[in-house]
Every structure is written in C-alpha cells, then in structure tokens.
Amino acid sequence: MANRHTQTCAIAAALNILGDHWTLLLVREAFYGATRFGEFQRNTGIAKTLLSDRLFFLEKEGIFRKEDVGERGTRYAYYLTEKGRALETVMIALMQWSNEYVYGRGKEPVQLLDRSTGKPVPQLQLRNRKGEALGAMDVAFRAGPGASKATRRRLESIE
Amino acid sequence: MANRHTQTCAIAAALNILGDHWTLLLVREAFYGATRFGEFQRNTGIAKTLLSDRLFFLEKEGIFRKEDVGERGTRYAYYLTEKGRALETVMIALMQWSNEYVYGRGKEPVQLLDRSTGKPVPQLQLRNRKGEALGAMDVAFRAGPGASKATRRRLESIE
User: For chain B: N or C, fewer Cβ within 10 A?
Assistant: First the structure.
C-alpha cells in the first residue's frame, strides 16, 4: 500500500483498501468459502509473508474478522464482515466486465448462475427507484456532503 | 504491473489490467470528461512519467483510444472505448461501497444522482431476468466454458 491517495474521492478511498491485487483475490476466496490461512494460500498461490500481511491489513480495515477457533497449528479462521460481504457487487462487476471484454463470450472461466434457473445472472445495471434501467446520460456525478473544495471545483467544471 | 496473476479467473484478469491504483482513477477522470494529458495530470496529481506509462498501457489494453488532434504541444486526446465505458459499473460499485462503508452516509464526497429526480441512484443490485432482486443465496459461482482444470476443481470443492 505504498501510494495512498489523499483525494476525497470514494473511488480513491476504495482503491486505498482494495488497490493491491491480492486483496480482492482474498475476498473472492472468502466468497468461495475459504476461511483458513492454508486455504487462502493454496488457492491463490500468494507467498505466506504477503498473505499474513494482507490478512492483518484486511482485518484492520474491517473487511475480515478473525476468530480463534482454538485448533493447534491453525488457530484462526477469517470471515467476511458485513463491509466485506458488501464487496460482492464490486467483485461481480469486475467478473462480468472481464468475462465480456477480456475473455469474451463462450470463454468465461467462472460464471455467476441463478440457482433457480441455472442460467447466467444478467449484467449489473443501474436502475432508478422504480426499477427502470438508467443509461450514462440519465445520471450525473455531483459533489456530495463530504466533498472537499477541490472535489467540488472538479465536479462543477464538468458541465 | 509487476505481479501478473496467471490464474484463469475473471477477477484476476481484470486486476491485471485495473490493479494499479492509478488506472481506475484515470478511467474516473475520463468519465468526468478529461481527454488531455494535462487534465489527467492536474486532476489526479499523478507524476508525468507514470501517467505517460499508464496511458500507453491503457491504450494497449483497449480501454482508451488515442486520437491525434493535431494541436501543437498537446497533440493527443484520449477517449474511452466501449470496453473502457463498460467499466462504469465497476467504478460505480466501488463508489457506492466506499460511500457506504468507508465514508458513511451523509459524508459522501461524490454522489451519483438520477438526473430526472435529483436523488441518489439506488445501489447496484443483482437481479434475475424478470428484474427480481437476487441475494447471495440465490446465486452460485460455477466453472464456465473457459475454466482451467484448477478452477474447475476449486469451484467443485465449494459444495
């Protein structure tokens, strides 16, 4: 986490936590059901010292909580917190983008299926409160209550 | 881009492109309307050599296309391709997560508003083909047509 972004920007702040390649892969593993150091290590191929470092960091940031399960050798289990589980949307957005634009249709390594139909889940789509799809032209980025002067100026310059 | 992940995993592949902190911030700037080297530089605070490197990389990966606009000094303009514009869902998922769990309600630096109502756009939500919301229990990650043996084994071990 060498270069922390200091802009007041939700994307920059998210990347300060998630920007490290490994972070989201560990979150992915947790979604797949991994809870133990050895599982995370085996399933991602991450070096042990790096894994140790990342799990500590993710616990500190409130993405994982560590539980002492009292077994010899593998004392701890790691579980996603509510904040961690909420990353599912980010993960799925990444997966759907990559399946479509990096791998391409028919070459998807992993798909998200609707259990009740067995069919792929449709792409995430912005919708208004009535559930109608919103396009890029229907939405606008605006300074929020926590905007810094610089962010406010930046966003006002857009239109 | 020191550590390229080699797993056949759509998330790993996406992070090979987007894993660098700066990459998504440049994409964010492009969504805000930046097209010129100087704008990207000024609005993110990125070092010029790093920016030059990242723009080259993003063009190579098909996220930006570079256009010679023939002006002295600032010859080139950078535009998002279709693949780049499709990252909007990833960006918005990150922004919504960060607004809720990093900044918290009432402290959002930037909000995405529905132009027709002026209200914040609801959180991205997985839905089935009928438009009904899907929870974590309604969906499953499954090996796709492009899965490697390792990915297939990994996913079959889940349940």
Answer: C
Which of B101, B138, B151 is best to mutate for the A interface (most A CBs within 10 A)?
B101
- CATH number listed for the domain at residues B10-85: 1.10.10.10
| Termini Cα distance of chain A | 34
Question: What pLDDT, in 10s, does the model give residues A111-148?
Answer: 999 999 999 999 999 999 998 999 888 999 999 999 98
pLDDT value at residue B17 = 78
Reference A15, options A94, A71, A125, A128; nearest CA is A94
Q: Tell me the average pLDDT across B35-54.
A: 92
B68-111 pLDDT, tens digit per residue, is 987 666 689 999 999 999 999 999 999 999 999 999 999 999 99
Return the beta strands (E) in chain A as ranges.
64-68, 76-80, 110-114, 139-143
Query: pLDDT tens-digit profile of A73-121?
Result: 668 999 999 999 999 999 999 999 999 999 999 999 999 999 999 999 9
Architecture label for domain A10-84: Orthogonal Bundle (1.10)
Cβ distance B94 to A129 less than 8 Å, yes or no, reads: no
B62 DSSP 8-state letter: T
Quote the CA–CA distance of A19 and B24 in Å, as a whole number. Answer: 10
Name the residue ranges covered by the structural domains of chain A.
10-84, 88-124, 126-159
All residues at 6 or more sequence positions from A129 whose CB lies less than 8 Å from its CB, including other chains: B114, B117, B119, B122
CB contact under 8 A, B106 and A154: no
The ipTM (two decimal places) reads 0.90
Cα diameter, chain A = 61
